[in-house]
Structures are given as C-alpha cells and as structure tokens.
Specification:
Elements lengths: L2 E3 L9 E3 L2 H10 L7 E5 L5 E9 L4 E10 L7 E6 L3 H13 L4 E6 L10 H15 L6 E7 H6 L6 E5 L8 H5 L6 E5 L7 H8 L4 E4 L8 H15 L7
Parallel strand pairs: 1-3, 6-7, 6-10, 7-8, 9-10, 9-11
Antiparallel strand pairs: 2-5, 3-4, 4-5
Helix pairs in contact: 2-3, 2-7
The structure holds S-adenosylmethionine (SAM).
Length: 240
C-alpha cells in the first residue's frame, strides 16, 4: 500500500488536501483515482487508512477513514555526520531513516569540504525512505553546526558513540552492551577527525570512543555499520 508522510493532523473523517508534489505523485505517477486507498502518517497520530476523495489537476483530496496503527516512535538515536560529498551524504540520510535514526544532524569539522548542505533535499530523501520503510515518523535532518558548538550545547543524559578510526578504541559491542536511553553516533568526514577534535571528543565524559574494526570505512559504510551495531545491542533490533 502506498504510504504518505503528511504534516497535517490525522483523525477520523478529516479531509486532507495534498500539496502539489504529493498530488502529482499520487495522480500522475501512481495513477490513483477516487475511491483508491492509501496509508498516511505524520509522526504523531499513528498510521491512518485514507481514501482518495477527489483527483484534481493540481490537487488531490483524501479523507481519513480509520487508524491502522497506533503511534510508536523508535529509540532516541541521533546520527551526527560530518558533511561528506553529496551523493554519499544522501545515501547516509536514506540509510539513517531505514535504520531508525530519529534525527540526522549535519556536522562541520576542521576537515569538511563544505559548511552547508541542501537540507530541504536531504529532508525529502529522509521522508521518502521513512515512507518506504514503514516507520511512523520521519527523521529530522538538522542544518549543519560546528563540532565545538554541538559539544558546548550537549544535552544532559545523552551518550555519544564516537566512531574513531584511529584504531585505538575498544570494539563497539562491549561498549554498547546494556546501553539504553538517548544516544548519538558521530561519523567524521573523508579526512577523518583532526587530532584536536579527537582529543576534545575523547575528553567528554558522555563520549564512548569505539572502533568499527581494523579497516578504514567510507563514511557511509561507517554510518550504516555503527547504526546497525547500536540498534542490535541498544536499540529496537533487540528482542522486545
Ligand atoms: N581518515 C580516513 C580517510 O581519510 O579515509 C577515514 C575517514 S572515514 C571515511 C570517516 C569516518 O568514518 C571516520 O571519521 C570515523 O568516524 C568513521 N570510521 C571509518 N572507519 C572507522 C573504523 N575502522 N573505526 C571507527 N570509525 C571509523
């Protein structure tokens, strides 16, 4: 069944006017007509069965029929990734949505080649991946911030899985064993974290440096591996 992420509130019988992009997708691409049914979610009200009520030239109108699933939200996991090349960053955002990250925070470090990114495009990729993967929310893609600003504003009770490619950190699984609560995963840029950045990160009481094995991974491989390890040991891949 087609799934659409909406910003509108969802409740029985509410009418939903889709924006131009979603209208075009449903009408022209997916060839939906009046009476067809799709699933909608907004990250707050669960998943709703919605019926196509009207297919206009530039707008499709839906009507919510019944709730299919109660709202649930995955673990409080942030992926914090340095700005790497566009294609790789887009892959990382898509995989973060599939692997259940709640937010993707973009990071500017000493060795990143850019200090900005197309956050709107990355957010659209995150939404599309959330629709495909069946989750009931979509990760927020947060605009780039500098590493020291992020560390200065670090929230209490949040732990950090610092993926440190230098090779002198313990393996991830024992570090994450029994972990719970809010965590962030840090992935550096193509050039890695600088020695100063590594020192700063390792000095934080909330940080747990981990190794992702003896080989240097590309940032997308590292992000996927780290999220997999975290979900399997501390997240929602564990038996309920
Ligand atoms: N400095 C290397 C380079 O120039 O190719 C590696 C940087 S790597 C592409 C980007 C990030 O992935 C690293 O900063 C680190 O966060 C993570 N990473 C890659 N391999 C890793 C490993 N074996 N252990 C821990 N983290 C790793």
């Amino acid at each position: 069944m087609i799934r659409l992420y909406l910003s509108a509130d969802l409740s029985a019988e509410v009418g939903l006017d889709l924006d131009e992009g979603q209208s075009r997708y449903l009408a022209a691409v997916m060839r939906q007509t009046a009476g067809d049914e799709i699933a909608c979610f907004n990250g707050r009200d669960g998943e709703w069965l919605c019926r196509v009520e009207a297919v206009g030239k530039r707008q499709v109108r839906l009507r919510a029929v019944q709730r299919l699933r109660e709202q649930t939200t995955g673990p409080d996991l942030d992926l914090v990734v340095a700005l790497v090349k566009r294609a790789r960053l887009e892959t990382i955002v898509e995989k973060a949505a599939e692997l259940g990250a709640r937010r993707v925070r973009l990071l500017v470090t000493e060795r990143t080649n850019a200090d900005h990114a197309r956050v709107d495009r990355l957010q659209a990729i995150a939404v599309e991946a959330a629709e495909q993967t069946g989750r009931l929310d979509a990760p927020d893609v947060v605009a780039p911030v500098k590493l020291d600003a992020l560390i200065r504003a670090w929230p209490e009770h949040r732990r950090l899985m610092f993926c440190d490619e230098a090779g002198d950190s313990p393996p991830a699984i024992p570090v994450l064993a029994g972990a719970s609560g809010a965590w962030s995963i840090f992935i550096g840029p193509e050039g890695g974290f600088s020695p100063t950045e590594r020192e700063t990160l390792r000095a934080q009481a909330f940080a747990s440096p981990v190794s992702l094995g003896p080989r240097i991974l590309r940032a997308d491989t590292a992000a996927i591996s780290a999220m997999t390890l975290w979900q399997a040991t501390a997240g929602d891949w564990r038996a309920p």
